[in-house]
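re: that complex we talked abt at group meeting.

here r the seqs, copy pasted straight from the sheet so there may be weird spacing, ignore it
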Amino acid sequence: MFGRDSSRPQDLAAGTSSVESRLLPMMLEQLESRGRINVLDAGSGSQSTVDFFAAHSARIQFADLFSCDIVNDVPEDITAGSAAEYFSRYLNLPEDLVFDVCFFWDAFHHLDLRLLEGLSRALAPHFDSRTLGYGFGSLHQGARKNERGQGVAQERYRFGIVKGSHLLLRPDATTGPYHAHTQQELTEHFPALTIQRATLLQEGRLELLLGYN
Amino acid sequence: MFEKRRDNPSEEPSVGSIDAPRPEQYRELSDSRSTAVIGSTIKVKGEVSGEENLIVEGTVEGAISLNGHDLTIGQSGRVDANLAAKTVKVEGQVNGDINGAEKVVITKSGHVLGNIVAPRVTLEDGAKFKGSIDMDPGVDAGKSAPPAKPKAASTPTSASSGKAETASEKRTSTAS
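got the structure back, here u go
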C-alpha cells in the first residue's frame, strides 16, 4: 500500500536534495494494515507528501509550525504551560482528532526546551497507543549552540516524503534559533511520545522513530 | 501597403468587408463572457454565488460558491471566506475552508489558512499552507462541491468549520 522504492528520486527541482531514510520504511510498514489515517506534518505543505499519501486514504494536517509567533520570537517569560496553551490555540485541532503518524522533521531543533515541552502537552490529547512519530535529534547537545548556550540561527528546511524511502529537503528561505536536542532531552521534554529507534546520520544528527508510551 | 494588407487582412479591415471571427475567436469571446472578475479595488461582504467562472483580485468576506465552475483567487486577492467550486486556484491569500469538486491548486504565491477537501491537491514550491488536506473524504466526494457556508466573522482561523467536518474522524471509524 505504501509503495517503497529504494532507488534515488530523479528529476528533483532546483535546490532540492534527497536523503535515503532507514527508519521511514519501517514506520510506514506499521501503517500498512490501517484504513484511513490521520497525518500531522509540522511543515507548511509539501507536494511530495501530499502525492505520497494521495494513494492512501488519508487526512494530512500541515501545522506550519515555523509561522508560529512564539517559535520565531520566544518570549523570555514563557513557560511550558503557557507555550502549551499557545500551541493549542495555534494548532486549533479538532478535539477528537487522533493522529496515526506525526512528521516532526527537524521541528524539535527549532524549539527550546520550554517550547518543546509545550508542544508535547498540546499534542498529547491527539495521540493514542497507535500513534507513531518521525523526526530528528542530535547526538551532542552543544553541537549547534553559541558560547552563551543559545541556539544559533540556522536555515530551515521543508521536508517531504518520496517513494516511501527517501526524504526531500528544500531550503525554506527562513532561519530560526537552533537548539540541538539529545535523546535524553527529547525523552524528558517531549514525553507525549518516546523514542523507539534511532540511527546516526551525518553531522551528529539522529533519525528518530517515536511511539506512544 | 497593399501587399501588407493581403498578408494580414485582419489588421486593417475596411468598411463593408469585416471578416467573420475565426472559430477560436468565438471560443475566446465565449470564455471571456463566462468569467467574471472582482477587481482589485472591489470589496464584497456576503455570499457570492454564480454559474460562471470567477477571478477574485479584490477582497471578499463571507462565502463563494460556484457549482461546476472554476474559481481563481488572483495574486492581489484577499479572501476571508469558505470557498466551493469545481476547481479552485489560489495565487493570493485565503483564510477559510476550500472545497474543490475536482482539484485545488495553491501556487507559489498562494497562502492558505484553512482546510481543503478535494480529490486532487497541488501545492507549488513556495506555497504556504496551514490546515488539513482531505483527498478522500467519502464516497460522494468529488462529484460536486457542496455550497460554501459563510465563514463565521468571529472565527480567527478555519478551525470552527474544521471541527465540524472532522467530527466523524474518531479513531473508532478509522481503525481497520
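couple things i noticed - Chain A has a mean pLDDT of 86. Chain A has six helices and nine strands.
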